[in-house]
Amino acid sequence: MKKIVSMAVSFALCASCFSTDISKYLRTAPNVDRAMLSADYWISKSVDPKKVIISTDEIMRLNKEVQDASSSDEGKFAYYASSKKNKSISKKKLLELLDFNFGADYYIEGVKVSQSYKDDLLSYRNLDSVKDTNEVGYAFVLRRGGLRLLPTDDILTLDEVRSFYDEMQNSSVLMNEPVVVLHQTEDSAWYFVMTSYCCGWLPSSNIAFCHGYDEWNSYRNPSDFLVVSENKFRLDYDWVNDRISEVEVSMGTKLQLVPVSEYQTSYEGREAYDNYIVRIPDRSQGGYLIFHNAYIPLGKSVSIGYVPYTRENILRMAFSALGERYGWAGLYDARDASQFVMELYRAFGFDIPRSTPGLIPMDAPTVDVSGMSAAHKQSLLKYIPSGSILLLPGFAMVYLGEVDGKYYVISSSGENIYESSSKVTQTQGVSVYDLDTKRKNGQKCIDAISKIKVMY
Q: Tens digit of pLDDT for each residue in 207-221?
């Protein structure tokens, strides 16, 4: 009883303190007050925030146009996803995708790696086994994980002391992500795969193969599915099946739904009241795709089908990740700036590029502000809707709006310089700040913006 009373008093004290002096307990960027840390604040400032911007059908049509345009390119995912005939990759194209050049000194936990280490790692790619024509496989990712430039879990940095930039990390992939398998190491411990947005190496333990294209394509396009529409959450504890017990799912993850009529009582005797039932991917002993049924409580933020594309939904999902740690290219089960944008828009069904260089030429309504003065950009931003994507060299931000002549964004940032100091601040997380904030190179964000993607 004492413990319960103590917890209640503690909560009351915290609520009181936060209502009077947030700065005493919470660090925020300059010019950001407590109200700005709420999605509701920016939703209230948006025009028609509940209005559907474009329908899911229209988003699918836009995706198909992009896919059709690249379906004849052997180096693109659409080439293998669009036809049963595309079951192989040429030696020339595969070697291009597998190519890697160290070209610099690398460190592991502050120790410079040797040339023999580099040679062994490059040799591990198993390039000698590449044939003139190489059959591809079709598979799914089992759990969110890192997509690597070389087949290793070692964290390689260009700096002796910095550890949050891993030069081997190319991206992260979500649970249930469809992939095309192009190559493997000789011991089959790693597979080189292609996703809809990039390529890289995955450990074999994190993928499961389908029995051919037809099975893969049917699972890739289920008629009924659920999409995670909040930052992340864990499935419930399951004392019988540790393969689904407390497994994490994150924003944009797409899982096949199971009708109640097709589901039996779980192994532990639990029945599906006030829960959705979804299929969680796993692998058989032979490495093939199997599924486990699992519960997702109604209290979680999820959507049957893709999330309706509204300003309100964009902002609520973005703010569900506020304060989340930064992860270079998805390192540490986190997101960097462009991954944050990609996963946010995936929840609506958009199939958009993973990297900032890919986002810049993306075929979407675009305002080119490169070469404009800060004042000119600000005059345009007054008319830009919240949720639009602001693009800088190597960086992306989600636009929020204007307050008292300041223009605000939310983004997953590694380093910033705030006006009150010349010191580089290791923000290392998803945060709200205004565009007068300086980047590591000392340039203001507003000055660095080159493109604005209004996203319809």
A: 999 999 999 999 999
